[in-house]
Amino acid sequence: MNVALPAFIVFLLLLPGFIARSRFKRAERASFDYSPFGQIVTEAVLWNCIFHSLWLLLSAVLFGRVLQPLLLLELLSSDPASQSRAIHGIALEFSWISAYFLTLYAGAWVVPNGFRLLITRFGLDRSGAGWFVPWLRFNQAPWYYLLTGADFEEGRRPDLIAVSAIVNVAGQAVLFTGLLTDYFFDVNGVLDRLILQQVMRRPLVADKETDATVEQDLARFYGVDGDYFVLRYSEAITLNIEYIKLAKLAAETPAGESAPAG
Q1: Could you tell me the keywords of this UniProt record (predicted)?
Q2: Stretch 164-181: mean pLDDT, rounded?
């Protein structure tokens, strides 16, 4: 008990920081976090200090309950007598201590999610948004910024994102193009597949000519039947991303002509 109990207490004390860190970050990897160990621990400890300080302050201001450092030190001690006194003191305040930790864990789950939503909603992580961007930017999610247009200002964000990819089909290079609907990663954080709509294809040998009109260019594409087209990233030779702003597209379309689909 001399070794196991202090280790368990330290685990309970540090757990909120790791929960908060995992909920705040946006990472494309689902299996393992390969961030440097020192970085993981530092971030978790910082979150931990913030939450414990806030909860202790609220406990003192709202309920008149303050931290008892001596009780905590005795609990972390390897002396059986000190541990017994600390356990007896905890038993007297068990309901309050349980409420403290349960609300702390809930807050460590909910609050960082709220911060992340606010950062995303107001574009605080957008490149060029200010000096604080490196602190708020989700550096472990590069595909998120590329495939959502999150780096654009609020009024300039694209209405549609078009994806064009060259795929080897039976030894022939075929160009597929469509509107991005969703995207998914594998457990290692590698882009796995793109979900497209309004997909068209054409052999790459039928490349567009410089003097071709829009109608002539579209005529060389063949529509792909179906509601959704799944493009596996591992099968794509190249990938092109185009951000489309409908207002700009309508302004560039000559009078009497309709804007091209997709």
Answers
A1: Membrane, Transmembrane, Transmembrane helix
A2: 91
